[in-house]
Amino acid sequence: MNKPKLARDILIIRSRKTSNPKKAPQEEANGSPKHRKVRLSLCCKKGMRKSGSRETVVQHGPEDKEKVDSFRKFVFCDNSLMVGKEPGDHTLLRFLRMRNYDMVKAKEMFLNYLHWWDEFGVDEVCKDFKFDEYKEVKRYYPHGFHGVDKYGRPIYIERIGMVDIHQLFQATTIDRFVKYHVSEQEKTLNLRYPACSLAANKFIASTTSILDVKDVGMSHFSKQAKEMFKKIQKIDSSYYPETLHRLFIINAGPGFKLLWAAIKRFIENRTLVKIKVLGKDYLSDLLEDIDPSNLPKFFGGNCTCGGGGCYDDLCLLSDKGPWNDPEIIDALKVKAAEAAEMAESKDVMTMPVQTQATDPLLVLNKIDALINDANAKMQTMEAALQDAKLVLHGLVQHVDDLKKMVLVTNITP
Question: What are phi and psi of 146, to 5 degrees?
């Protein structure tokens, strides 16, 4: 009987470690662009439905593939954009879906994303930014990832009603929190989704979110809070579109429901159908999508992450999920290294002329190739000249023989 894909991956990793420990997969550097595009597959753990297929299941069909291919050509028709690694199909598909497959609008949105990426310095944030106030911020703004839903998607939780705005901005600043938020978004795209895909043995590229609005009041909408949430909302909607699978808004009181009735008119139907606004009787709805083992006890689940108490900080501090499983991390590193090698070989073949000309290593390689080609041609010419010399030598010898024959003939009486 064939082993599931995860088991095969883990056996391969273990055999590599056992047979040749010196050649263990090299760890990818934090924020390395070479490994940004890994989208991969691991066993079904408790609380996840087992996939019927052992191969990765991609959530879009041939028609989407055709649209993505056309969009890719449309976006990168200008060679000046061909720098670094090209985005994966699903990244382009997210921007297409966000603009209802209007390629002109989707391209404009995608180019704005590329500009923001450089201007914000996302690579540098992911590599160098240290959020030392992490635990303190979590205390005054309870939020975080915790487990996966029954399909295998990561679960994100925010307890807005427990936010202490004054203490939060004593612990951090708006700019630092926004950088932290971007680094978490990148971690979700580049680690959480790939790890969940490996764990569920299917393609995962969206999140199930729970927003607890219990006791939310006007104190939660100070000037600083509005500024911070406005920046975060712009970043999420403009640069990380189409990553929400389902949003449960729970503990919504009469005041919030009135507010929701007013604001939902400004939300697109595509997003609106993903949102459920629930009161205090929310548990049955959550349990349809989430196993109790992955639902914190403060929401009616079984998980305490080994702790408890009125603050319940351990669950939201734990960052519990497949992305912390050592075997999954090892499998991702192997696949990331393989993907990087393939991408590098592809880049050398497809890099534009102007990019090649500005890369000293590529210029030297090109010169070496030209020299080798010239040497080969010279050797061919030398061989041809040698052949010509032999032919001429033969002709000279033949003429000499003819001269001798004529001389003998003239001498004979």
Answer: -150, 100
